[in-house]
Amino acid sequence: MLIHPMPDPVAVHLGPIAVHWYGLMYVLAFAMFIGLGRVRIKQPHIAALGWKNEDLDDMLFYGMLGVVLGGRLGEVLFYRPAFFFANPIEIVEVWHGGMSFHGGFLGVMVAMWLWSRKAGRNLLDVYDFIAPMVPLGYAAGRLGNFINAELPGRVVSDPSLPWAMLWPDTSYPLTPNPVFLQGLRHPSPLYQMLIDGILVFVILWLYARKPRPRLAVGAMYTLLYGCARFFTEYFRTPDWEVNWGGVPITSGQMLSLPMIIGAIILLVWSYKRNVVMGVTPATKAA
């Protein structure tokens, strides 16, 4: 049995300013986006499309706005509308956590559409380019959720599970005498960090190292994340849950199903068209 370490959500105080670990995870995510992007630009089939480091810097600004605005609006509208409408000041207090991946995903797509229009690039090529740089940023966000003791897992069926964890009830002060939720629980943010984030990154990065049909990389990311999220939702206490024909399905699973179905359709469409971008004799040889 483990006990959640309950670290201080504030990493450091800079005078009157409190720097939260959750915010630092976003800084880490954006830094990894730039670092991985610099590596990806050097790949022959990507270099053939004329991507530059300056494009990364410009896209990052748009992407940051899309992640933050879309992620927060998604949390408000998809998961806890009653709470936020009753406490509207909480909407802007993003340092407390509470960012929806699905909302952030939609926000980034809108941001990339705006950037692609400005830069004169095809949105599908933009999505293919950035998709492999996204999962590790997501993993960093889930680590931030763990530090904040957010997204508690379901109660384990086998209390002898070595990593089963006592999880603090964040509706009470965490110190000096924290109150814990009932039962040993799955550390679901760590599951999602490892599976939805790191595992999806490894698979997608390897897949994207070679030329693929236009939109195949973006669609593959959508499919991988949708399937991974659908699976890890079984270990997370749902924000809300419904029953379809006697089968319970969580809010996260309901939002992931359109991603899975849409991604399969787009992958089939992509390979049928088989328009491979950035392929030259040199990249074929590579």
TrEMBL record:
Protein name, entry field: Phosphatidylglycerol--prolipoprotein diacylglyceryl transferase
Annotated source species: Rugamonas fusca
The entry's keywords: Cell membrane, Lipoprotein, Membrane, Transferase, Transmembrane, Transmembrane helix
Record: residues binding a 1,2-diacyl-sn-glycero-3-phospho-(1'-sn-glycerol): 142
GO terms, biological process: lipoprotein biosynthetic process
InterPro entries linked: Lgt
Pfam families per record: LGT
Annotated function: Catalyzes the transfer of the diacylglyceryl group from phosphatidylglycerol to the sulfhydryl group of the N-terminal cysteine of a prolipoprotein, the first step in the formation of mature lipoproteins.
Enzyme class: transferase
EC nos: 2.5.1.145
Record-level GO cellular component terms: plasma membrane
PANTHER family per UniProt: PHOSPHATIDYLGLYCEROL--PROLIPOPROTEIN DIACYLGLYCERYL TRANSFERASE, PROLIPOPROTEIN DIACYLGLYCERYL TRANSFERASE
